[in-house]
Design a protein that fits this description.
Elements: H1 9-23, H2 29-40, H3 48-57, H4 62-69, H5 73-81, H6 88-100
Length: 106
């Protein structure tokens, strides 16, 4: 089975901004590498119970998580009951929160 990698304009623009911050000396090479990994990696699949556990671990309401991920509360609800799965940037951000904590994206 072949996986199609789609480009994200938002992630490309974020990466360009971060690259400029790194060039200016405002962020470290380590942080730049984290953003590169975020841009390139697809993040792992997040089953519903894992999303809910992660949200509760970070002490976020569904509304708070929706705001952090720039999505709707109903989308978070659908993820947590298994009617939809996060994809693209949301999956990447959830994976980053899981690995590094909420502070990594705020």
């Amino acid at each position: 089975m072949t996986t199609i990698q789609r480009k994200s304009r938002i992630l490309d623009e974020l990466h360009e901004t971060v690259r400029g911050l790194h060039t200016s000396g405002l962020i470290s090479a380590h942080r730049m590498a984290e953003y590169d990994a975020l841009r390139e990696g697809g993040g792992e699949d997040m089953p519903p119970e894992k999303i809910k556990r992660l949200r509760e671990k970070e002490r976020l309401s569904q509304a708070d998580l929706a705001a952090v991920l720039n999505t709707s509360i109903s989308t978070i609800q659908k993820w947590e009951i298994g009617h939809q799965r996060p994809n693209g940037p949301s999956r990447r951000l959830l994976s980053l929160i899981e690995r590094k904590g909420l502070e990594a994206i705020l």
